[in-house]
Amino acid sequence: MKKKSKRQLIKKLDILFSKIVREGKGCLRCGKKTNLHCAHIFSRRYMTTRWNLDNAIPLCYACHIFWCHRNPIEFTIFVTKILGEEKLEELRKLSLEKSAYTVQDLEQLLRVLEAHKPEPLCL
Ligand SMILES: [Zn+2]
To answer: Do 91 and 42 contact (CB within 8 A), yes or no?
Structure first.
């Protein structure tokens, strides 16, 4: 029972997080506004940075799958320009930390994301 509810919370967090990352934005690489993906900088498998808003950028399908995933070095240079080396290193360290989220932790994360106000559109 507990496990199921954790899984559900993770799913809910993933959906909401992805929406926040993509909503009202364009692909950071090519500017396209359709078929946007929520591209993680440090993989989603690292739970401690999975819902960190610094750790994901909006990319269109093509840039995500055919550029980012196939050119990891170019992608690293790209995100270093966006975040700066310091922030990237901070995220890297955070991503390597062990996570042991309880149901309560996940619920708290969800509340934080739900309260997130979308950034104003900038051109
Ligand atoms: Zn693109």
So the answer is: yes
Helix (H, G, I), strand (E, B) or coil at 59: strand
Whether residue 46 lies inside any domain: the answer is: yes
- The confidence score (pLDDT) of residue 123 equals 44
CB atoms within 5 A of ion ligand 1 belong to: 27, 29-30, 32, 60, 63
Expressed as residue numbers, the domain containing 37 is 2-114
Residue with tokens 């901070």: 90
Residue at 34 is within a domain? yes
Cα–ligand 1 centroid distance for 50 (angstroms): 22
- How many domains, in total, are found in the chain? 1
* Residue 111 CA to ligand 1 centre (angstroms): 30
Q: What is the largest CA-CA distance in the chain?
A: 46
- Reported as a pLDDT band with limits 50, 70 and 90, residue 49 is very high
Q: What is the DSSP letter of 46?
A: -
Quote the pTM value: 0.89
